[in-house]
# Entry
Amino acid sequence: MIQPLVDVSRDFPILNRRINGHRLVYLDSAATSQKPESVIEAVDAYYHQSNANVFRSVHTLAEESTTQFTEAREKVGRFIGASQAEEVVFTRGTTEGLNMVARGFGDRFVKEGDEIVLSPMEHHSNLIPWQQLARRTGAVLRYIELADDGTISLEAIREAVTPRTRLLALSRISNVLGTINPIPEAADLVHRHGGIVVVDGAQSVPHEPTDVQALGADFLAFSGHKMCGPTGIGALWGKMPLLERMDPIMYGGEMISYVDRETATWAEVPQKFEGGTPNIAGAIGLGAAVDYLTQVGMEAIHRHSLALAELAFATLESIPGVSVYGPAHPHAAALSFNIDGIHPHDVAQVFDSQGVAVRAGHHCAQPLMQWLGVGSTARASFYLYNGEDDIQRLKDAILETKRYFKR
# Structure
């Protein structure tokens, strides 16, 4: 029996709720995770005790706020294996981080005729910025073709990457298929041609140990709210030489070194990219989330996520009339499926009547839906607070949905 890794009733207060008379089974962590009490308390304590702006004043509250903000950056840097904390730029989330690279790096260094390599499984956040970059610069988009089970082979990467490849943008884990992509191997191929690798880590950083050095990435973007942190906070990690060469895309207070009437020079990285008042409480909450996940253990979380997803895949695949997408093994913690003849939004509504929370739609991955030949899917996604009982509840909800529509 696969048990939750944490004390759900103590650590995650929202999971004590009952929905429509049933114990809440939260299977939508790929959209946003729930928050442990320690993260909620960290944000609350900041506002109660230390609320002040950072890097601006010398009074006690400002110094406390600045210290906590700086410590949060250091925690995030250690969590992902950054060479130095200054390589971590706080953002609103994965979307902003990827757009920062497309604008700040891409507009400066990608030229007409250069190639940008993507995959059809990318979230729109890791697709549209590159589409727009290609339109602005005259670069060419190339796609890595997927195998029948939604995986990416090294041969497919070799076919897509050429001497003209300037940039590869690829998710480590698909938010729809649960596919785990071979980033280190892809990075090796791209680096041989002098290109850079941008990794969408939204689904991977919460679920597996992350070492940006071993990953081979040049940039990595991820979101706090998917890893037990607050909403509206995330991070872009980049190699320092690249960050130093990048242009900022947000101009204003605290991101400058010197300004006169005609010119300005930029502050050092990371302040160069963090114009305006940052999400201080969010960063502190993200630091608390890193503490929590580190205490549980990322290796344990990784094993737990894979075990739950693969058990769920096998369980759903055994139900007549249910189509499950992606590889059976290894399968990360997002599992998409359809029930024959029933629209995914109807599935999600019946599930909710049973207290089971899943997502339905195209999951911000419409090219992937086109590749699958469907308009949308239902998606169950798992995290450290889920256990085998939740998979049974998922199965029961599917059977109830089939009975409901048969009636």
Observations:
- The chain has two domains: 8-31+297-406, 40-295.
- The mean pLDDT is 97.
- DSSP finds 14 helices and 17 strands in the chain.
- The first strand starts at residue 18 and ends at 19.
